[in-house]
Design a protein that fits this description.
The structure holds two protein chains of two kinds. By secondary structure, chain A is an alpha+beta fold. Chain A has one domain (about 1-85). Helix content of chain A is about 25%, strand content about 35%. Chain A is globular. By secondary structure, chain B is an alpha+beta fold. Chain B has two domains: about 5-120; about 125-284, Orthogonal Bundle (Phosphatidylinositol 3-kinase Catalytic Subunit, Chain A, Domain 5). In chain B, a hairpin with a 5-residue loop joins strand 4 and strand 5. In chain B, helix 5 packs across helix 6 (about 240-255) and helix 6 runs antiparallel to helix 7. The longest helix of chain B has 21 residues, at about 75-95. Chain B is globular, with a radius of gyration of 18 Å. The N and C termini of chain B lie far apart (about 35 Å). The chains are: A alpha+beta, B alpha+beta.
Chain lengths: ~90, ~280
């Protein structure tokens, strides 16, 4: 199963996984974890597609492209996303 | 006025790098020469190699060498690093004080080689706007909301997604400016492209909503001061090149001249001014 972890940087420099984004069999992404507001915002507002030349917004329902773009979207250090992992 | 912007002046800057009140210059000095006591590689983030660094006795920062990004050439990585600092300088010159103190410095990497990166004060107890409940937008300092909207147009920021600004109490902190101040955008007026999708509930559309007077006053203070402009031009010139530095300072002027009586941005006027800038600067 393909998934991406989203990490929040704590004051002491440790990173905590606040959301795991799983690619489901139906091709959509499920968001799970303690970052409920973050999940809600991602569901409602989506993220920029950094891999597309034209402006485009991706949502969890878009599946793999959404997962692939998370690590481009969350790069500040305060909140980072992993590359797509598989288990 | 500066207090209204949620910012303290140099003498009032609070909780420095997590210590007693210190000035901005002192903060920059700490970032520049403070001893790295503990470095933690951060997982994730495609720009690569970011670290949380604890400075001996003086708080912490985020070091970004942009070292692992497969999309960027070496030149682009260097550009990203310099632009992080350049935007901090513009922000401070305008008196917005949204960007945490940011410097460029080198540190040894795991192979013992010197590695250049941007190093920015870490803002404790903040959340990225991605995790913020936008129903609480009225809790955020209104001047900061307008200031970040203005800043993004001035620096032609392509990347103000909600992951790239922080909220702490009522204060906004603008971070991640590696994709701003690009030469291809300096004469570009289409700010809709610069406003990113999920930030719109917090960052106002200044073509429709009146920019707060305090924010415009800050800009006017900068534009009245030739010496501030000269200093900024010199500082930017070292980071992004003289011609581009001039073009971005002229962009600030063009922006201010495009604010109409209702204190909104007249996009058409802005476009016209930028075209004039393009002709003038290209000739020289």
């Amino acid at each position: 199963m393909k998934y991406v972890e989203i990490y929040k940087l704590e004051n002491d420099g440790e990173q905590k996984v606040v959301l795991v984004c799983f690619l489901r069999d139906d091709g959509t992404v499920k968001l799970k974890g303690s970052g409920e507001q973050l999940a809600k915002n991602l569901e409602e507002a989506g993220i920029k597609n950094y891999l597309s030349k034209t402006p485009e917004t991706l949502f969890p329902k878009d599946g793999l492209p959404f997962l692939q773009n998370l690590s481009h979207y969350f790069t500040s250090g305060y909140m980072n996303a992993s590359e797509v992992k598989e288990k | 006025m500066l207090k209204d912007l949620g910012v303290k002046n140099e003498k009032e800057t609070s909780k420095g790098l997590e210590s007693a009140p210190i000035s901005l210059k002192e903060k920059e000095a700490i970032l520049k020469s403070g001893i790295f006591e503990q470095e933690k590689d951060l997982m994730g983030g495609c720009s690569g190699g970011a670290m949380h660094v604890k400075i001996k006795d003086d708080g912490s920062g985020v070091f970004k060498p942009y070292s692992n990004h497969y999309l960027y050439s070496l030149e682009e990585k260097e550009g990203n690093i310099n632009r992080e600092r350049a935007v901090f300088l513009i922000d401070r010159s305008l008196g917005f004080n949204l960007v945490p103190p940011t410097i460029v410095r080198c540190k040894k990497n795991a192979n013992g080689e010197e590695e250049k990166g941007s190093f920015q004060e870490f803002i404790t107890d903040s959340t990225t706007a991605s995790g913020f409940d936008t129903k609480k937008v009225q809790q955020i300092n209104n001047n900061d909301r307008y200031a970040i909207a203005v800043l993004d147009v001035i620096i032609a920021n392509n990347d103000r997604c909600s992951a790239n600004f922080l909220i702490k109490g009522e204060k906004i902190y603008a971070i991640d400016h590696g994709l701003s101040l690009e030469s291809r955008n300096v004469f570009q007026s289409n700010i809709i492209n610069f406003l990113s999708f999920s930030s719109r509930e917090i960052i106002p559309d200044i073509t429709k909503e009146s920019i707060s007077k305090d924010v415009l006053d800050c800009m006017d203070t900068f534009l009245r001061s030739k010496s501030l402009q000269i200093i900024l031009r010199q500082q930017l010139g070292e980071l992004i090149g003289e011609k581009l530095a001039l073009a971005y300072i002229e962009r600030i002027k063009a922006f201010r001249e495009s604010i109409n009586n209702s204190q909104t941005l007249d996009e058409q006027k802005f476009k016209t001014f930028l075209l004039k800038n393009k002709e003038t600067i290209s000739k020289n």
